[in-house]
Amino acid sequence: MPAQKSRRLPPLSGVLVLVMASTGLVVVDLTIVALGLPLISADVADGASAESVVVTYMVAMGALTQVVGSLSDRWGRRALFLAGIAVFTLASLAATVAPDLLWLNAARVVQGAGAAAIMVNGIPLLSDRYAGEERNLAIGAWGSFATAAGLLAPILGGVLAETFGWRAVFAVNLPLGAAAWVLAVRVLPRSPGASGAGRTDWLGSLLLMLGLGTGTLLMLRSGDTPWSGRDTAVLLTACLALAAFLAVQLRAPAPTLELRMFGSPAFSGAMLAVLLSRVLTIGGSVYLVLYFSDGLGLSPSAAGLLMTPIFLAQIVMGMVGSKLIGNRAPGLVIGSGYALKGVGLAVMALAITPDTPWWALVVPLLAWGAGGGIAGAPVMAVAVRVTAPERVGMVAGTVATLASLGAGVGTAALGAVFTLHGGHGAQAVTDGARAVLGMSAALALVAVLTTVTLIGPRRVPAGGPASVPRPRGGGRRARPRRQVRTTGRPSTRRPAAAPSRRSSPVRTGTCSPERSDSP
Question: Which whole-number Å values give the CA distances from 359 to 303, 363, 380, 433, 441, in the listed order?
């Protein structure tokens, strides 16, 4: 039989188009609204700060991703995905017609809940639809598209807000959400991978939502605001809720987060890589854009265009990274991606000045994006490979939660670095951005060491996911029969026509290729 031709792109399917488009919609909404905040403040907030419109969306989404991901394993991908699209679209309609800031914030909370259901079902739906190398390529395409959508969001948001007003940044979701819902009804299978096993861990879910919600809220506070007693109370609430959640997970029969997954070095390495990547990517890009605008004096549109090398390289090299892990050690592929990303960050940290020409930054920006593409998609594929099929939704929730946590930590921690080294004026902003980029390069080096050490070839199976799929009828997973080695000696077993004792229990634990079936 001729060898199957290796693919460079995943086979196009309705599921892939649906997942990429809907995920892009959610990712764009994370940052597109920020461009309309001044207009929102003047229109419905009486000139007061409207940052809560962004914060409420991120808090709701960050608090619910893990819970929704775990529920999708039990209740089914289709039901939760359809509900997520419907909730997201209807909440966008409510935000479009919001008469005041309170209404708008409430709509954003509901929108964040729908976004969580959409986001965490991306990897599970692709894992159900594709297998082997095709799965790696599909996850790579999904991750690259999501990253590109996030980087394009500021440009899109600026155009919509300036041309049609702030309500347009919510109204654009209405036709896109409706189209996504219709496509989902047509292409999603009726019962994609729901286990239906075990009770729902409601106590653990509530504790996790409380802990993540309060923690995210604390990370999104302004760095210029002095620490207060209220902040201390929020921090204690987050810590106590998360500690109680971990205690509940150790005893829950059907936990929201299976802590034993972290016993796999490859899984722990992949999750740590996701966290570090978001810390240095989100935190680094925020203050890089600030350098473009305040350090180089570029307009917002020009600053957005200067970020295009990152997402272009990310899209192309994301597919390359997904291809490489099919025949290369995953840890080395991911580590090389982070190494390239770190080189790009380090070069920019050394090169930027208030007088640096924009074209001198194109090559390091390309290196940043290419490294992120090579490393990003394989991390997701590794996490799916080393996890049982019935846990893929839970894994997606963990990835989304850590990504959200990393974005918050990166913005806050690197913001402190920027404040310590920077200030007002072109030179001060440049100094702060240089310190942030240098710290991001150091974090990239940590990611390299982590992935090369933990995601070794022997710790990641060649195919995935790791476990044998459940039978269609449910129940316990059948044990695979022990294979018997063949030798060159004549067989001493009974001929096929001879009667055998099929009614006797088979003792696979003592089976030996050297012995016959006779006692």
Answer: 12, 8, 33, 18, 21
Cβ atoms 513, 485 nearer than 8 A: yes
Give the pLDDT confidence of 447-498 residue by residue, as tens digits.
999 888 888 766 666 554 544 334 333 333 444 444 444 444 444 444 444 4
- Closest to 460 measured CA to CA, from 328, 313, 307: 328
Residue of 342, 183, 203, 359 lying closest to 277 (CA atoms)? 342
pLDDT given at position 364: 94
Q: What is the largest CA-CA distance in the chain?
A: 92
Q: State the average pLDDT over residues 105-120.
A: 90
**Cis bond upstream, residue 99 (ω within 30):** no
Residue type, 87: V
What is the phi-psi region of residue 47: left when phi exceeds 0, alpha when psi lies from -120 to 50, beta otherwise? Answer: left
Cα 180 from Cα 62, distance rounded (Å): 22
Cα 358 off chain centre by: 31
Q: Give, as one character, the DSSP assignment of residue 102.
A: H
Query: CB neighbours (10 Å) of residue 100?
Result: 11
Locate 230 and state its tokens. 């209220």
Residue whose structure tokens are 């980087």: 151
Half-sphere exposure of 486 (CA within 13 A, CB side): 3
Sign of CA dihedral 425, 426, 427, 431: positive
Count Cβ atoms within 10 A of the Cβ of residue 428 and give its class: 0-12 exposed, 13-18 middle, 19 or more buried. Answer: middle
| Number of neighbouring beta carbons within 10 Å of residue 205 | 23
Q: Could you tell me if residue 487 is left (phi over 0), alpha (psi between -120 and 50 degrees) or otherwise beta? A: beta
All residues at 6 or more sequence positions from 507 whose CB lies less than 8 Å from its CB, including other chains: none
For residue 155, what are the CA distances in angstroms to 177, 407, 446, 466? 20, 20, 32, 41
pTM: 0.72
For the cut 80, the answer to whether the pLDDT of residue 517 exceeds it is no
Q: How far apart are CA 63 and CA 67, in angstroms?
A: 8
Residue 412 burial class via C-beta count within 10 angstroms: exposed 0-12, middle 13-18, buried 19 and up: middle
Six-digit token string for 217: 């809220």
Q: For the CA atoms of the chain, what is the radius of gyration?
A: 25
Q: What is the pLDDT of residue 111?
A: 93
Of 172, 116, 131, nearest to 13 by C-alpha is: 131
